[in-house]
Specification:
heterodimer, A: alpha+beta, Aldehyde Oxidoreductase, domain 3, Aldehyde Oxidoreductase, domain 4, 4 domains, seven-stranded mixed sheet, five-stranded mixed sheet, about 25% helix, about 25% strand, globular, disordered N terminus, B: alpha+beta, Uridine Diphospho-n-acetylenolpyruvylglucosamine Reductase, domain 3, Enolase-like, domain 1, 2 domains, five-stranded antiparallel sheet, 12 helices, 13 strands, binds flavin-adenine dinucleotide
Chain lengths: ~800, ~270
């Protein structure tokens, strides 16, 4: 049947006028993604496409309550089902030592609940059956007796004296504090700055609980071979090598007999960083059943039980003196849910939240983060963000906007006065980060020009006179991505480095193996282009291999915009190693000394005689031939590298949003969105644009519609895409992109990460625009609302009844 | 249907029934696929001063129908914001009315246009039911388990105009509130009016008091504002993820007024 196109404007035109698309630029440039040929033909190979001989199917029985004691579990009827192979409950896991597993934040999490269920849809039992339908049917045959307990869904009530104790499994735990208060910055200095301030603005800023919602849900095919003890794991995750190490530790299996295979992955966004109970169950199920077990969660399971993001309540104050921002203080109450599995490097219990001073040259800043347990799903994953930077940027950009209007200064003007100046880089922030490079004023001006900022303000006034509501929002973000230097950080004791292995074959074609794990970011194209740029081989002649821990070097994977900053660094370095080796071989071939050779893309030639040279494919052929190698050099043309970044990279950007708000219904329409990103050198500008379009779309979702919420009993009420809304092209304007390029001074190719920038910068930008519209409409009375700015909440805010999201 | 003793459901577009089965909210013993009789039941006809829409007419056919666009622009407006192209390609008039979701758009449209449903029972016996009797509760209609909805009929009267207004959280979502209005204006006087609101009560809300209040009067913004206020008062929304009660009441009023104003404009064109 023919389909029609939805009415309205398409949001994206990937091939815009900004430069020609080339088939295969030898290096950087706008090149169509190599992987798209299979994706657009429906020939991707996702987890559910994995079908192994003898494979059986798993399903999880989940808690119907937010908080309840388990009195008994009777699995006999399920076991009697003719197609059921096994039923696993906590008791069975205890014998394997797998009832509890460590989280990435050094907490523990129940794999299957034995004593209590602590959040709605927590895992209680795992059924293995001959087919997926029977597994589902058998779930209904398991009888669980519960004693329902009061649930805590409001983090602000978690520390009340009469709050029920959620983690009674933890020895010595007497309240619902998840981690002690952590702080950064200088409190005394900050107090002094505030004491001297001209203007202080105070806000409770909430970044509510949302979900990354990858299109493909989480799942696994676990294949434990009882004869060989080899465990093959098919599982779309963002960090296959780290996962392998974790399984080895948790299950006590030898690491060399675990192989993780990630085929194509339908999105991750941080949701596929954690190890979930379902994975451990699938492995246990395969051990018990003696057959490969496929377990794939459905949409509801993904939304309700897997890693959420945000859920930060931020009490904040910002101050100004002499017309410029001078100080910031923030006290965060973090809601971790029932188990603390926040994604973060060791030593950073609040992730990189303390980058909260943003793009501004402040005299002092101080922040504290206190985390509590509640009866909600665990997570705290870095949803398209580098460890809580989204929360930090949301906070600082909301506060700057609020402060500007408090001072009666245009919000761009206040930013311009307060930005870190170009000559201050490298710049040490009040909370201890060293920003590498930037020219914020320039980028802001480019955005103003594209937007026609002054005309927009004029239009806003004209509209206001007619009773129409138009809002203009600004956000200027700085991100710290590419975690990270081993001297500063690790995850579960593992250095956050990445390996690369490059082999140039005799014909001059190459395979580069990497530890980063694409979930749709276009690595097969981008990383080939990095090698192409360094060696002069066509990207079409380079295969990028990833997703098989037996065949790729160790590294920490893809999240926190770290692929290009870290893995990309490794690929550049390994390419240069190959180039250096090629030089030695070329010298032998050309019967000259290596130092007499010069490089032009794709070939070494004799300095002073351009015509005399050896192309990379000739050098490759020579290296594998019977001809003699230079003294002391092994045959072949390949190399390995591990890249340890000296610092994070600091991409930034200036965003401007224009919204129209219906005065009668509170409906917000985002009419324009201008995004000027500076991510340093752009390898494939079209891939960058694609990342920005995707991230902006997610920002539209978070700002306007997304929210994971709970009723008083602890039931999550967003169990499907009918209730948890994701944005479509119709909610998005045609994004207007611009760029400035400030190369990263310490990165091998000057690149900074960009995958997350748009998702970090756009939520405050759109929220600021909505509040700006309401501010003008109400003659300054309305100055705040929290996301999501959906029609009902926006209308309430318009009436002066803004309420925190619930 | 008779041979399964009612333990069966008709399957039309499947865009309501299949999701309910996936969520295990519906568990019929049998499905009776009526798509094979689509040729008989997919039509939009103008005959005898009436428009007749067959029960298997797809949303997309209604969206693209010139006949409907000419007489009842409300169809285009409602279909334009109803679900998404995938759903519109399959979902049907019959399925929409029989599902009787209180947030459904077409039930409001049919109510405002004062449509009648033709039901056929065992042995071919037909009966005609007005929308007033059709909706008997949330997800409940006058259609008996062994009856099939065959078609929906509307009288074409002079001076007609109609409009549909909807606020949604996102394109393709069910309404937070929707208002469907039809007016028949002759000689500058409103001769007849239909007004219905969706998603603000246990069933599609027919705002009879507002209809009575505008009939016999000349169309004006003040009049429609009064009618909107009545819609606000007479609907009975409940709070949910789409918004609290006061908001929904307010929006029912705003949208009713807007729909009536635009219906008047289209009638006078
Ligand atoms: C994602 C999504 C978004 C949607 N958004 C909207 C929206 O914005 N607005 C809106 O109004 N609707 C919306 N819908 C509902 C959509 O319009 C459905 O297509 C419609 O409600 C049902 O039509 P159907 O033909 O698919 O019915 P089916 O699912 O096939 O059937 C629905 C019910 O009606 C019964 N039935 C069907 N035909 C007959 C008949 N001829 N006689 C007797 N009983 C019959 C069936 O037995 C069943 O009980 C949405 C649906 C989806 C999936």
């Amino acid at each position: 049947m023919a389909t029609e196109t939805a009415p309205g404007k398409m949001a994206t035109w990937l091939e815009d006028a900004k430069g020609e698309v080339q088939d295969a630029p030898i290096g950087y440039g706008r090149m169509k993604r190599k992987e798209d040929a299979r994706f657009i033909r429906g020939k991707g190979n996702y987890l559910d496409d994995v079908r192994l001989p003898g494979m059986v199917h798993g399903a999880i029985l989940r808690s119907p309550y937010g908080h309840a004691r388990i009195l008994s579990i009777d699995t006999s009827k399920a076991l009697a089902h003719p197609k059921v192979a096994a039923v696993v409950i906590a008791k069975d896991l205890e014998t394997l030592g797998l009832a509890w597993m460590p989280t990435i934040s050094y907490d523990t999490q129940a794999v299957l609940a034995g004593d209590k269920v602590r959040f709605h849809m927590q895992e209680v039992a795992f059924v293995v059956a001959l087919d997926a339908y029977s597994a589902q049917d058998a779930l209904a045959l398991i009888e669980v007796e519960y004693e329902v307990l009061p649930a805590i869904v409001n983090a602000r009530k978690a520390m009340d004296a009469d709050a029920p104790l959620i983690r009674d499994d933890k020895v010595g735990q007497t309240n619902n504090l998840a981690s002690p208060t952590w702080e950064a910055g200088d409190k005394a200095a900050t107090d002094r700055v505030f004491a001297e301030a001209d203007t202080i603005v105070t806000r409770d800023i909430i970044d509510p609980r949302v979900h990354p919602s990858p299109m493909e849900t989480c799942g696994m095919v676990a294949d434990m071979n009882p004869e060989t003890g080899q465990l093959n794991i098919y599982n779309g995750n963002q960090a296959p090598h780290a996962h392998r190490t974790v399984y080895a530790q948790v299950a006590g299996l030898p690491e060399h007999r675990i192989r993780i295979l990630c085929n194509d992955i339908g999105g991750g966004f941080g949701n596929k960083v954690p190890v979930y109970p379902g994975y451990v169950c699938a492995i246990a199920g395969s051990i018990v059943a003696g057959a490969p077990v496929k377990w794939i969660e459905d949409r509801s399971e993904n939304l309700v039980s897997t890693g959420f993001a945000r859920d930060y309540i931020m009490q904040s104050q910002m101050c100004a003196k002499g017309g410029k921002i001078t100080g910031l203080r923030v006290d965060v109450l973090a809601d971790h849910g029932a188990f603390d599995s926040t994604a973060q490097p060791t030593k950073f219990p609040a992730g990189f939240f303390h980058i909260v001073t943003g793009s501004y040259d402040l005299d002092a800043a101080h922040c504290t983060v206190t985390a509590v347990y509640t009866n909600k799903a665990p997570g705290g994953v870095a949803y398209r963000c580098s460890f809580r930077i989204t929360e930090a940027v949301y906070l600082v950009e909301r506060m700057v906007e609020a402060l500007a209007w408090e001072m009666n200064v245009d919000p761009i003007e206040l930013r311009m006065r307060s930005f870190i100046r170009p000559e201050q880089f490298p710049y040490e922030t009040a909370t201890g980060w060293t920003y590498d490079s930037g020219d914020y004023h320039k980028t802001m001006k480019v955005a103003m020009e594209i937007a026609g900022y002054d005309q927009l303000r004029q239009e806003q006034q004209e509209k206001a006179a007619k009773g129409e509501i138009m809002g203009i929002g600004i956000a200027f973000f700085t991100e710290g991505v590419g975690a990270g230097p081993r001297k500063h950080m690790d995850i579960l004791g593992l250095a956050m480095n990445d390996g690369a292995d490059l082999r140039v074959h005799p014909s001059g074609k190459a395979v580069v193996s990497i530890s980063a794990q694409t979930q749709g970011q276009g690595h097969e194209t981008t990383f080939a282009q990095i090698v192409a740029e360094e060696l002069g081989i066509s990207p079409n002649d380079i295969t990028v291999r990833h997703g098989d821990t037996d065949k790729t070097p160790y590294g920490l994977g893809t999240y926190g915009s770290r692929s290009t900053p870290v893995s990309g660094g490794a690929v550049a370095v390994v390419s240069r190693k190959v180039r250096d080796k090629a030089r030695l071989i070329a010298a032998r071939m050309l019967e000259t000394r290596p130092e007499d050779l010069a490089w032009e893309k794709g070939r070494w030639y004799v300095r002073g005689d351009q015509s005399k040279g050896a192309a990379i494919e000739d050098i490759a052929e020579y290296s594998y031939s019977g001809s003699p190698m230079p003294e002391g050099l092994e045959g072949g043309l390949d190399a390995q590298a591990v890249y340890d970044p000296p610092n994070l990279t600091y991409p930034y950007g200036a965003y401007i949003a224009v919204v129209d708000i219906d005065p009668g219904t509170g409906h917000v329409h985002c009419r324009r969105f201008i995004a000027v990103d500076d991510c340093g050198v752009r390898i494939n500008p079209m891939v960058v644009d694609g990342q920005i379009h995707g991230g902006l779309t997610e920002g539209v979702g978070q700002a306007l519609m997304e929210l994971i919420s709970f009723d008083e009993q602890g039931n999550c009420v967003n169990a499907s895409f009918m209730d948890y809304l994701l944005p479509t092209a119709l909610e998005c304007p045609e994004f207007e992109l611009g760029e400035t390029v400030t190369p990263c001074p310490h990165h091998p190719i000057g690149a900074k990460g960009v995958g997350e920038s748009p998702c970090v910068g756009s939520p405050p930008c759109i929220t600021n625009a909505v509040i700006d519209g309401l501010r003008v409409h109400t003659q300054g009375r309305v100055r705040h609302m929290d996301m999501p700015c959906n029609p009902a909440r926006t209308w309430a805010a318009m009436q002066g009844n803004a309420a925190p999201p619930q | 249907m008779a041979s399964h003793n009612g333990n069966a459901r008709f399957l039309a577009g499947g865009h309501s029934l299949i999701p309910m089965m996936k969520l295990r909210l519906a568990d019929p013993g049998h499905l009776i696929d009526i798509n094979p009789i689509e040729a008989e039941l997919n039509y939009i006809r103008e005959e005898g001063g009436e428009i007749r829409i067959g029960a298997m007419t797809r949303h997309r056919n209604m969206l693209e129908s010139d006949v409907l666009a000419k007489h009842f622009p409300i169809f285009f407006e409602a279909e334009h914001v109803l679900a998404d192209p995938v759903v519109r390609n399959r979902g049907t008039m019959g399925g929409s009315l029989c599902q009787a979701d209180p947030a459904e758009d077409l039930s409001g449209v049919v109510t405002a246009l004062k449509g009648e449903a033709v039901l056929r029972g065992p042995g071919g016996a037909e009966r005609v039911v007005g929308m007033e009797e059709f909706h008997i509760g949330p997800y409940m209609t006058a259609v008996q388990p062994d009856e099939l909805l065959i078609e929906v009929r509307f009288k074409v009267k002079p001076g007609g105009g109609s409009a549909h207004e909807k606020v949604e959280r996102r394109a393709g979502d069910f309404a937070i509130v929707a208002a469907s209005a039809a007016l028949w204006i002759e000689g500058g006087v409103i001769k007849d009016c239909g007004l219905a609101c969706s998603a603000v009560g246990p069933t599609t809300m027919h705002i009879g008091r507002a209809e009575a209040a505008v009939i016999g009067k000349a169309p004006s913004e003040e009049l429609f504002a009064q009618a909107g206020a009545m819609a606000s008062q007479d609907c009975s929304p409940s709070a949910d993820g789409r918004g609290p009660v006061d908001y929904k009441r307010h929006v029912a009023g705003v949208l009713s007024k807007r729909a009536l104003s635009r219906a008047a404009a289209s009638a006078l064109r």
